[in-house]
Specification:
This protein has about 240 residues and is α/β, with parallel strands linked by helices. It has one domain: Rossmann fold (3-Layer(aba) Sandwich). It is built from nine helices and seven strands. A seven-stranded mixed β-sheet has the order 3-2-1-4-5-7-6, sandwiched between helices. Helix 3 runs parallel beside helix 4. The termini are far apart. It binds S-adenosylmethionine (SAM). The site of S-adenosylmethionine has 19 residues, from helix 1 and helix 4.
Length: about 240
């Protein structure tokens, strides 16, 4: 299925049976805790891949934002790498669990909607989105991008991990019960376009599977100005 076919102009969930208000999504993820708890008993293969990626990006003393942090598995790992990290999630239950189980002297956890959250004048060296952007409805993506732009600066690195759009589309058609309340098939081209619109350019894209082929895609973005500055320095500017 062409991912664009899946746009839900009626603002309903993928099943079309309930309105997706923030309250409904919050309740859904409060109840999702039982599922996410498994990651604290047995290592999740997806997290193992994400941690490999993060270990190449996160440096000591960085200020990092982990958007849609869930139970804090990646947040704690970022803290263990020596960075100061704020994990943000919509679900109070997940944040409560993260505070009890994924705490570290470098972690801070906030409850909030990542399309609206306000960090004042703070800027972050790295912003991580691990399996979260597909849970943001298409109509709210511009608000999320505005926020990412607001809290980034010239040296900010963005790390994004997302289920592959081809898998998402297949699931929607064949096994919709395996999808979460909002679970969009966002394609590589769409994602590059979104981040391009806030002046970020992908420097690495990895398509990988942990137990299926074409299962996830991860991206590392840096600000376009960084390239242009380096091209000017090394190649000259006529
Ligand atoms: C699949 S879980 C991923 C959790 C974590 N990043 C990980 O990789 O284990 C998706 C998370 O997105 C959160 N979420 C969904 N919509 C959100 C929103 N608008 N603002 C903040 N968090 C949101 C959910 O509460 C849930 O914790």
């Amino acid at each position: 299925m062409d991912p664009s076919e899946s746009v839900r102009k009626d603002k309903k969930s993928y099943r079309g049976d309930i309105m997706v208000t923030t309250k409904v999504v919050r309740n859904y993820y409060n109840n999702f805790l039982e599922h996410l708890k498994h990651d604290h008993k047995k290592p999740n293969l997806r997290h193992i891949e994400i941690k490999k990626d993060l270990s190449g990006i996160i440096k000591k003393d960085m200020n990092v934002l982990d958007l849609g942090c869930g139970t804090g598995v990646t947040t704690r790992y970022i803290a263990e790498l020596g960075a100061k990290v704020i994990g943000v999630d919509l679900s109070p239950k997940l944040i409560e669990f993260a505070k009890a189980n994924s705490t570290h002297e470098n972690t801070d956890y906030w409850i909030g909607d990542i399309t609206k959250i306000n960090f004042g004048k703070k800027k972050f060296d790295a912003i991580c989105l691990c399996d979260i952007i597909e849970h943001i409805p298409r109509e709210k993506i511009p608000d999320l991008l505005k926020n990412i732009e607001k809290y980034s600066f010239i040296n900010t690195i963005i790390y994004l991990n997302i289920p592959d759009a081809r898998l998402q589309s297949w699931l929607r058609k064949n096994r919709p019960e395996k999808l979460q309340i909002i679970d969009e098939p966002y394609s590589v081209m769409e994602i590059l376009g979104w981040f391009g619109s806030i002046n970020f350019e992908a420097i690495k894209i990895k398509i990988y599977g942990v137990n299926l082929p074409l299962q996830y895609t991860s991206y590392i973005f840096v600000r376009k100005d960084v390239f242009f500055h380096s091209y000017n320095i090394h190649l000259g500017n006529k």
